[in-house]
Design brief:
Blueprint lengths: L3 E3 L4 E4 L18 H4 L6 E4 L7 H12 L6 E5 L1 H11 L5 H10 L11 H9 L8 H11 L12 E7 L5 E6 L2 H8 L9 E3 L2 E5 L9 H5 L4 E6 L12 H21 L7 E6 L14 H13 L13
Parallel strand pairs: 1-7, 3-4, 3-9, 4-5, 9-10
Antiparallel strand pairs: 2-6, 5-6, 5-8, 7-8
Length: 311
């Protein structure tokens, strides 16, 4: 099994050692956004969902356009990539610039459709996808030497320890290896070795990691979930059934994780809910998803009333 490596130091948190008390959390969608939009700024939690992450980019465009600068940005998988972009570029134009990055995603060949290559890799017990196009894309966006702690906004990147099954939260260290680990979809991309740990996609155990917000002693958070529901018409073949199975699992994971936090966090939850769910590997819906995200952000009550944060 090929495993990407990084010898540089990351500060990571294994949730087994976090010592965070489990509280409770409201299960309602929505919430009192007006209270979140007053200082201190809320945290923003961005979940995984591959190409559906364009919805998050649209939300960032709406939120950043009001001058919102989060207290903390937490990201898993594609959410980590969006989170990192916003954390390093927290100005009002962050969403527009991120939009341009998303528009070129399909051309970068991050999720190419090469069934024969995938079959050959599967027969050789190798990863189905090539991580290099994603790595090259990240380097072109962030450069080679960025550190997580250099972000203007506090940034937490979530991955999964493949050996222990625990969430691993990276707040310091080289940015690119952390993003590659957080987005290392098991079976598609090879795991990434960081500080002796074998890491894969954070969505395996923490697709929307709310404990990170609690650990940061932040009370308010906006959570963007990409687990779009399917209709009966969407479930037409094996691929769509498998995608729906993963969607159900991730949505349930987040629901169970948030229930114990009821009295400790105030949350506004925004869920992607298109008429028909796009395939997570299909970047042809980027413009539609971005527009949906921006519209969802603009509809948040009280969003436009937030004063701009001081630099």
């Amino acid at each position: 099994m090929e495993i990407g490596t990084s010898d540089k130091q990351h500060r990571v948190t294994d949730r087994r050692d976090a010592g965070v008390a489990r509280g409770a959390w409201p299960s309602a969608v929505g919430g009192r956004i007006s209270s979140l939009m007053r200082p201190p700024a809320p945290a923003v939690v961005l979940s995984g969902g591959a190409a559906l992450g364009a919805f998050e980019a649209g939300m960032i465009d709406a939120l950043a356009g009001t001058g919102l600068k989060p207290s903390l940005v937490v990201g898993t998988s594609i959410g980590a990539l969006n989170a990192a972009y916003w954390a390093f570029n927290p100005g009002p134009d962050a969403g527009a610039a991120l939009h341009e990055t998303w528009r070129t995603a399909q051309a970068r060949g991050i999720f190419p459709r090469r069934p024969l290559h995938m079959l050959r890799q599967l027969l050789q017990d190798g990863a189905l996808g090539d991580p290099e196009p994603l790595r090259d894309a990240l380097r072109s966006i962030f450069g080679d030497d960025r550190l997580i702690e250099e972000a203007t906004v506090r940034l937490a990147i979530v991955a999964t320890d493949l050996v222990t099954g625990q969430p691993v939260v990276m707040r310091n260290g080289p940015l690119i290896p952390a993003l590659m680990a957080s987005a290392a979809i098991p079976g598609y991309f090879p795991p990434v070795r960081i500080d002796g740990r074998i890491l894969v996609d954070g969505g395996v155990v923490a697709n929307a990691d709310l404990d990170v917000v609690l650990e940061a002693q932040i009370r308010d958070a906006i959570v963007i979930e990409l687990q779009a529901p399917a209709t009966g018409e969407d479930l037409t073949g094996t691929r769509s059934i498998l995608e729906q199975t993963v969607t159900i699992s991730l949505a349930r994971q987040t629901e169970l994780a948030r229930r114990p936090l009821k009295r400790r966090l105030r949350l506004v939850i925004v869920r992607l809910s298109p008429p028909h769910r796009p395939h997570p590997w299909d970047f042809s819906h980027t413009e539609e998803l971005f527009a949906m995200g921006r519209e969802a952000g603009e509809r948040l009550p009280g969003l436009g009333s937030r004063p701009h944060d001081e630099d």
